[in-house]
Amino acid sequence: MLQHVTAGVDGSTESLAAAHWAAREALRRGAALRLVHAWTWHSRPAASVPMGTSEREWAQQTLDRASGSVRAAHPGLRIVGQLVSGSAVDALLAAPGEAELLVLGSRGLGGVAGFLVGSVSQRVVARSVRPVVLVRAGEAAADEHLPASDGVSPEEIPGTPYRDVVLGLDTRHPCDELIEFAFEFAGCYGAALHVIQAFSVPSADGGDLHAATGAGPELLAAQERTVVSTLRPWCEKFPEISVTETVSEGRAATALVRASAGASLVVVGRRVRDGHLGTHIGPVTHAALHHVGCPVAVVPHA
């Protein structure tokens, strides 16, 4: 059981959206919310720091504003504020502790541009051993739910169904941590789970044969059987969750972004590599972070 959900705050609108998303998740899980703000001393304070205010005082005010905003929206939630001196990346990577979920904001440009992932968020995602959820500015509770009829806000109608949770699955490297995370979130939301698997047919020269010929029905059927077989143990473990599989030929990133429209959460994986290989988030996850409009959960796995 989650003890804490942790969110990083820095005074930006996207980090405030992340804090509120984390608060809702903490309430759903019966957990407390930890808000973390990191600050660094400079010999010449930034222009954003008011005259007569020290950097530490300004950092505390930033944390207090975020805490106050979340507390006003969720008065029954236990909130713990943590002010850390030092690197934001190091503070956020160290912050989860007993928490199993870290929530950060991402700067969204909107439209075709999609996510503009901040350097802090991207470095945390690439190095975190815990799942990280990235939330865009403007994300609200109503966005998690299907639209209510007659223009009534979903927040005003208890029990309005959640939008689907979307899982990007790669059956070549199936990962229990990733699949379980998606099933657990769908179960917590009472939402359906939409599993996306895309594949391409390699040609003799290493290119994508599907671009010229397309895959035959036999290959498509084989891919579908593999997805069903991969998910079967999880469907048996979570029988209450409605699961839909979509298998298509083409680029995985394109299929995932297309399926994310109208989702409450997209779940993707990040393979943990040996230290000498550096840190990477992978092309599909990178595309999701840049082009998916709803919150994106990145789950590290072997």
UniProtKB/TrEMBL annotation:
Domain (UspA) ranges: 1-136, 162-300
Pfam families assigned to the protein according to its UniProt record, in alphabetical order: Usp
SUPFAM superfamilies, A to Z: Adenine nucleotide alpha hydrolases-like
Gene3D superfamilies documented for this protein: HUPs (3.40.50.620)
Record InterPro entries: Rossmann-like_a/b/a_fold (IPR014729), Universal_stress_UspA (IPR006015), UspA (IPR006016)
Recorded family membership: Belongs to the universal stress protein A family.
PANTHER family given in the database record: STRESS RESPONSE PROTEIN NHAX (PTHR46268), UNIVERSAL STRESS PROTEIN UP12 (PTHR46268:SF6)
The protein, known as: Universal stress family protein
